[in-house]
Amino acid sequence: MALSRILVLVLAGGAGGRLELLTEHRAKPAVPFGGVYRLVDFPLSNCQHSGIADVWVAVQFHPTSLSEHLANGRPWDLDRTTGGLMTLPPFRGTDRGGWATGTADVLWRQADLVRGFDPDALVVVSADAVYQLDYRAVAEEHLGSGAEVTMVTTEVAADDASRYGIVQTDGERVTDYAYKPDEPATTTATNEVFVFTPRPTLDRLEALAADAGEEGLADLGDGLLPAQTADGLARAHRFEGYWRDVGTVPAYWQAHMDVLAPDPPIDLDDPAWPVHTRGGRHSAARLLPGASVEGSLVSGGTRVGGTVHRSVLSPGVVVEAGATVTDSVLLPGVRVRAGARVHRAVLDDGVDVGRDATVGGDGDVALVGRRAALEAGAVVAAGARHPEPE
Length: 390
Prior knowledge:
This protein is of the alpha/beta class. The chain is built from eight helices and 31 strands. The chain has helices at 41-49, 63-70, 103-109, 111-117, 135-143, 198-212, 224-230, 249-259, and strands at residues 6-12, 32-33, 37-38, 54-59, 84-88, 121-126, 129-131, 149-155, 165-170, 173-179, 188-196, 234-238, 243-245, 286-287, 292-294, 297-298, 303-304, 307-309, 312-313, 318-319, 324-326, 329-330, 335-336, 341-343, 345-347, 352-353, 358-360, 366-368, 373-374, 379-380, 385-386. A seven-stranded mixed β-sheet has the order 5-4-1-6-11-8-12. It has a six-stranded parallel β-sheet with strand order 14-17-20-23-26-29, with no helix packed on it. A six-stranded parallel β-sheet has the order 15-18-21-24-27-30, with no helix packed on it.
């Protein structure tokens, strides 16, 4: 029996403002993770392991940072003569052209292209979460359900639930959907993976766009998903594995700490489901005499002469003798000079921490922006942003 024709649309065009300095010069899906990966690697690796070869990536903010990483899709087996990876930038020339104002608006603008492809199932996913999921298995369940949309759901912390689309269910049937509610009725959240039956979904989207008029569509959760739920056409697929939305600085930091746990909830090197990425050109990591490294991820091209505990060092990081890095995430090219202390912090590309400087402390996570140079003895307090936002 022929496999179902499945199309995956990766929504990779958001501004990512909640990641603050980390997205000033790059798209959110291009933000590094786990030393050698980028956030977009997770949905693309899921596509590969799901046996899905038709993948479209919608880009918008800082598209060059993402396009450079995607290249021709080879790391995810998407460099194909027919199908494979296609990047969808904003465009002009039709009534669908222009700057997308939300996730539903992205889908509406690409609706003609989706109709022309004519998939059996359309899987729409975000690119700002860390997880492993077989999209094909969820799509096949959806196709046999009679639903118009299947929402993949997960449990979230009660104090964080208002950041998500929250559902109530009766078995698999979604009985209520609320988008980022002030007072969530449950802690069951959609994890931004949706499987749609294309034709009725796009027809419904056209009607919503006509009603919206010049204001245009916003996000999927504003109109489309509530309408499908109200008509009894939404179902839930409960996801039991590890899932972490890393759309904020604290969540981004915490996801790294999760990966560093002695028994991590997600194995990025699982031989049955490895996360693939565009390969780098770095030599093996070098630990110099006197170095102390415990409970950390140390990428190729790093040099460590100091103390590193429970931290992630991306390619090209240098920690000089006498320097200490604890509970922190250092992105490519960071240098921590002798005597400096970095604790509970995220340092963006190329940051230079001067001798005897201090970054972070007990409390909220500190964040230092790309290529910032901290003078000798400088202090960036716990929870601070450097440079400070204007």
